[in-house]
């Protein structure tokens, strides 16, 4: 199942749930121009972009 989110600036994100991974199953993180860190969150929190925060809230509210 997919869900589409959109922002007022015409940005659109299509998201879906995947099989969970443990931390050891994730590939090593390498900082780059797009991302300086990788964080695993266990509850809703404000992110850098409002649309990302909306998606995180939907996930933790059971809407995804």
The averaged pLDDT comes out at 92
- Using the alpha-carbon principal axes, give the shape: globular
Major β-sheet profile: 2 strands, antiparallel
Strand content: 15-25%
Radius of gyration: 13 Å
DSSP strand tally:
2
Number of helices: 1
Low-confidence stretches: none
Widest beta sheet: strand line-up: 1-2
The percent of residues in helical segments reads 10-25%
Structural class: alpha+beta
Distance between the termini: 8 Å
- Sketch the topology as an H/E string, one letter per element: EEH
3D architecture notes:
The chain is 17% helix and 16% strand. It is of the alpha+beta class and 64 residues long. It has a domain at 1-15 and 38-64. Strands 1-2 form a two-stranded antiparallel sheet. Strand 1 (2-6) and strand 2 (12-16) form a beta hairpin.
What descriptors fit this protein?
64 residues, alpha+beta, 16% strand, globular
Helices and strands, with pairings:
Layout: E1 2-6, E2 12-16, H1 50-60
Antiparallel strand pairs: 1-2
């Amino acid at each position: 199942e997919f869900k589409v989110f959109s922002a007022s600036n015409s940005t659109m994100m299509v998201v879906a749930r995947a099989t969970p991974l443990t931390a050891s199953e994730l590939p090593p993180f390498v900082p780059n121009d797009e991302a300086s860190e990788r964080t695993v969150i266990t509850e809703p929190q404000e992110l850098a972009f409002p649309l990302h925060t909306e998606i995180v809230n939907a996930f933790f509210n059971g809407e995804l």
